[in-house]
């Protein structure tokens, strides 16, 4: 009896369980699950080196289910193996085959799509929005390599989802970074949700494409245990990364789930017996029953790696950091761009925290992450012009014990907002830094300016991630000192953070030893008539307006609201001393600091808040001031509005 | 003398002009522009059939500059040809070679990156965020085909930007839809911004990849006029779409712009003469000077097509529409999902407006755009699982005279937010419809739920697009009647619209002849103690809460805030009759209707506004009610909060 004789019986057993759980839950994707049943059986019982009682083991091989909707087949195998589930190691318990009937229940760890955050630690990232898994796998592989861990990453990709461009971004990244411990398994069942998969995503087409992208591509029958066994056994030992193009059958083994459109549709409970009988019949036709061979996975053999740690040592002072990173002159000149200060901070952070890695998308000489590259070439990952892949790679790296800082133009980060949200759903501890935000970019025009970003990230900052923390924290540094300290704060803060930096050099607004905190704001100027609140670049503009207003006899408090969620109380309190009047100025579209303060004020009812945000889609202008004028945010505009508010 | 002898002299002339304009502007990308100089010369002077005095001509061949930063070379050619610029046909004037020195000026039509909205009608879409052009080109080609216009679309793509996955989504789409009148020209100069382009984007790699994607791929020297002439001459007559992989030199002709990193950096004005001398010397080495052959493009020969028009005829009544589209029973049952009503509306819209086309991403049986497919198979475009491409294709279609409705899950639209913003910058008249929004999706979990979308689109709804209109209008239908009428409103409204539909069937809240307007809201219930405001699915929940509260003696106004920007005045006025108290309930993250009303109330200062948005990142629950409870939006939660607000 061959070593793969256990496969058909196990595949049928898992298939039955997968169908059953969707039927009990009343929703889910049994037919997609059935198409993966042999692949998952060979991976989870034989090829992956892992221990079901310790899914947190960093040495273990990992599986990324990119086509997240097929997850019932994983839950079935995991339950059969008694894998541990739970929101923490302390609370964990072994999953049973009865538990799986809780699929998609509010209290269950078995979410509709993979999500480690809700208690399924076998997965490293939330998936379910398609096309993201190969990038996550690449990030896991890269993190393992930098930590000297020898493990393999298996990524299961649907044929239909291979239409997502991100798959091809990831394919390039894997080759660029020589991550041949990543294996892409394409599940070619030929059927999408609404229709057949396009001929552009046929097994033949995918084989041609992967080969053209520099992978070794092999096409096999995805229900042939011997063929799967042979190819999966090669992973990690091929010169090029291996892509296994597996031809499969949607609803494998159960003819009644193959006729008509069964995508995302479980059988009625009354039809379950029939489907199970079909699966049994399929098995008996294959001559199955019993079967020996491996039926438990092997645990990893390598010694446990040192625990990833860091973040204890403090960064040096801002002055020292500037001096030793080539910006000593700026200290005397009295000005430095926030993006440059970010480069300085990232580099200093690298020195005190070995977990820190940096990713950039071909703009490192603009975001200043190139300073980190020079200091730590092995911890820098050039992702080229492919932001979606970059964000999902960072998610994989975070799951692999790294602390990834992702930088590009803030505008280009918006290319990856779907990936950002999946990262947030899976509670990935990644740090996003968008440069050239707002309109101060001037001549390059609106295609390079990030403007809805503050509203977008604020929406996350106001929601609990399920563990009692806000799902995302936003940092809006107004000067280089703030950018330096807020970069440090991001590293210390557990959870997703977004920071916005600006292109122009700006004068220092803070003493070099100023301190900052999550939720905080600083009063930079006092006055009796109006509380003027700015963020980022607009703090400089607001201070200039305040100076002008002072000349007209209008005294302004000026606040720098440098984080979201913002603790609004100090600002509202201060406003009570300025006749209850606040004016917020922001170089972004509506929905940022103004909305934050307006919501707080409208709830309390004793302070009035006016706001100025970008009022026109920008265009190019030769200077930042030109564009600020166009969008209604010049010093003149603020002075006029302030007069109106205090009148 | 051959027909291409004019090319080298013209290329040098245009190159000089491109360098000059960036030098005068003090910013821009001269070296990228120089790498395209021969390609642009052959296209704009010889191969494209177009008339510089009528860039609006729908019969004309089109050029899409995907790598938008190289735009100075287009401006140079356009000025040399005296092409018309202007924000409208009436205000247009011929561009001159002196005008180009206004590059990136606030008043100039020559923005830093291509943008038709600011007065450069030669372009069809804003580009500059990379990787979007091939999709736009595909949309232009598809629109032309449906209108019987024989034209060719040339898309210029940078090698570095070919890393963006969207390029590969577009490559698939072009093949799927047999758009062999699209030509992709890859500008392989080998240099990115921060570093060399990856070997994964070398000319050889791109040739292999495009061939694997089903294109005819040819590799040539991009500065060889004869080779370019030959290949460009084949466009439209090949069996497969043609990809021309052109090896080029960044900073062609000017050695001083080739040493070191000149990406995005113009020479100083004092160095201009030197660069011009270098270009002259390059020309003399090539034996150039003078030269005959074609030096003006040829205008299109085909007869002018009928003007695209539509939108005059009214849609039939909601009842009739339901009856004749298979939802007659719903009228009696008294309930229908908003997404189903969208399918009905889209189909009826198709009947009265021939411009309407529909695009979907393999979920048409969930969004109900499949109803449109059945009625109008030639006007439906299945884009498969590739949302970025889908949105940019729609932009191209809109530019080609169509009225595209793009539907997918609202969550998956977020995959294309960068493309959405570029569409908005270029003022593309596209309609985006996201289904399964909010948490009422229940069992499928957060990876399928759209939650930051309202904040994101609201940020656009509050900004002027430069022509006096808000850049985006958001529609939030609460029932099927609203969804039907708001779909019609979207078609009538000139400019980008976003509509959010929900999965569950909901009871009719409106009489079948109810009417709706942009900025409007409806009061669905009256009460004296509290003004309760909901949107979308939450209106149904709010009405249930109001009923419960009435039983406790708390009378509620209930408003349906169905659009953003919202005319807040009626709601605030009504609230004054309910002790100045408003409670807003939304099944999305913060930044939507609550922020809208809070900003208005905080400015006026006489009404207090509380808000309830999704307070936790959701997970799966078996029912919508389960998940509403988890995120703090159940009827119980609303009733408690209402009690607190009125206390």
Name its key features.
homodimer; 647 residues; alpha/beta; seven-stranded mixed sheet; five-stranded parallel sheet
What topology does this entry show?
The structure is a homodimer of 647-residue chains.
Chain A: H1 7-25, H2 30-35, H3 37-47, E1 62-65, H4 72-80, E2 84-85, E3 93-94, H5 133-146, E4 153-158, H6 165-176, E5 182-188, H7 203-212, E6 216-221, H8 225-232, E7 242-247, H9 272-285, H10 318-324, H11 328-333, E8 335-337, H12 338-352, E9 356-360, H13 364-367, H14 370-375, E10 380-382, H15 387-399, E11 403-409, H16 410-413, H17 417-425, E12 431-435, H18 453-461, E13 472-475, H19 480-492, E14 496-500, E15 505-507, E16 521-525, E17 530-534, H20 537-551, E18 556-561, E19 563-564, H21 569-576, E20 581-585, H22 593-604, E21 608-612, H23 624-630, H24 635-646
Parallel strand pairs in A: 1-4, 4-5, 5-7, 6-7, 9-10, 9-11, 11-12, 12-14, 13-14, 17-18, 17-20, 20-21
Antiparallel strand pairs in A: 2-3, 8-15, 13-19, 16-18
Helix pairs in contact in A: 1-3, 1-4, 1-9, 3-4, 3-8, 5-6, 5-15, 12-19, 15-17, 20-24
């Amino acid at each position: 009896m061959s070593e793969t004789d256990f496969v058909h019986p196990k595949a049928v057993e898992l298939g039955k369980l997968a169908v059953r759980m969707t039927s009990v839950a009343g929703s889910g994707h049994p037919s997609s699950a059935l198409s993966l049943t042999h692949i998952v059986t060979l991976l989870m019982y034989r090829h992956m080196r892992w221990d079901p009682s310790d899914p947190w083991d960093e040495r273990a091989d990992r599986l990324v289910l990119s086509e997240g909707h097929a997850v019932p087949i994983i839950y079935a195998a995991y339950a059969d193996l008694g894998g541990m589930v739970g929101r923490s190691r302390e609370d964990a318990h072994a999953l049973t085959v009865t538990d799986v009937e809780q699929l998609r229940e509010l209290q269950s760890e078995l979410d509709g799509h993979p999500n480690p955050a809700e208690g399924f630690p076998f997965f490293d990232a939330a998936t379910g929005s398609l096309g993201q898994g190969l990038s996550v796998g690449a990030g896991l592989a890269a993190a393992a390599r930098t930590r000297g861990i020898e493990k393999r990453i298996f990524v299961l990709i649907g044929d239909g989802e291979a239409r997502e461009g991100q798959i091809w971004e990831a394919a390039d990244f894997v080759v660029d970074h020589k991550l041949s411990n990543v294996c892409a398994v394409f599940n070619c069942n030929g059927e999408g949700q609404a229709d057949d998969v396009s001929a552009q995503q046929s097994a033949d087409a995918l084989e041609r494409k992967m080969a053209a992208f520099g992978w070794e591509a092999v096409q096999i029958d995805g229900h042939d245990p011997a063929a799967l066994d042979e190819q999966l056994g090669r992973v990690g030992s091929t010169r090029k990364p291996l892509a296994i193009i597996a031809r499969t059958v949607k609803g494998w083994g159960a003819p009644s789930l193959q006729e008509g459109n069964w995508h995302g549709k479980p059988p009625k409970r009354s039809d379950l017996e029939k489907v199970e009988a079909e699966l049994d019949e399929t098995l008996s036709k294959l001559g199955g029953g019993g079967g020996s061979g491996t039926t438990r996975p092997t645990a990893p053999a390598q010694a446990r790696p040192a625990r990833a740690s860091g973040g204890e040592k403090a960064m040096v002072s801002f002055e020292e950091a500037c001096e030793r990173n080539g910006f000593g002159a700026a200290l005397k000149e009295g000005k430095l761009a926030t993006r440059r200060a970010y480069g300085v901070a990232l580099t200093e952070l690298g020195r005190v925290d070995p977990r820190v890695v940096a990713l950039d998308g071909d703009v490192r000489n603009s975001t200043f992450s190139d300073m980190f590259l020079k200091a730590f070439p092995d911890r820098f990952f050039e992702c080229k012009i492919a932001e979606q892949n970059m964000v999902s790679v960072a998610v994989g790296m975070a799951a692999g014990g790294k602390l990834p800082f992702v930088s590009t133009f803030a505008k280009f980060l918006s290319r990856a907002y779907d990936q950002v949200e999946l990262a947030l759903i899976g509670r990935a501890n990644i740090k996003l830094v968008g440069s050239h935000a707002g309109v101060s970019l001037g001549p390059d025009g609106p295609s390079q300016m990030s403007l809805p970003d503050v509203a977008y990230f604020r929406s996350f900052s106001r929601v609990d991630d399920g563990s009692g923390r806000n799902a995302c924290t936003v940092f809006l540094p107004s000067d280089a000192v703030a950018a330096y300290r807020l970069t440090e704060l991001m590293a210390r803060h557990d959870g997703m953070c977004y920071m916005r930096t600006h292109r122009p050099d700006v004068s220092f607004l803070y003493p070099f030893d100023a301190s900052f905190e999550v939720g905080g704001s600083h009063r930079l100027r006092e006055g009796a008539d109006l509380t003027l609140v700015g963020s980022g670049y607009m703090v400089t503009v607001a201070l200039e307006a305040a100076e002008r207003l002072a000349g007209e006899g209008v005294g302004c408090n000026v606040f720098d609201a440098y984080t979201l969620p913002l603790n609004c109380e100090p600002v509202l309190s201060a406003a009570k001393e300025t006749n209850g009047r606040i004016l917020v100025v922001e170089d972004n579209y509506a929905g940022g600091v103004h909305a934050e303060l307006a919501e707080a004020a409208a709830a309390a009812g004793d302070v009035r808040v006016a706001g100025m945000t970008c009022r026109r889609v920008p265009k190019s202008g030769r200077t930042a001031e030109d564009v600020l004028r166009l969008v209604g945010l010049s010093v003149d505009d603020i002075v006029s509005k302030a007069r109106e508010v205090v009148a």
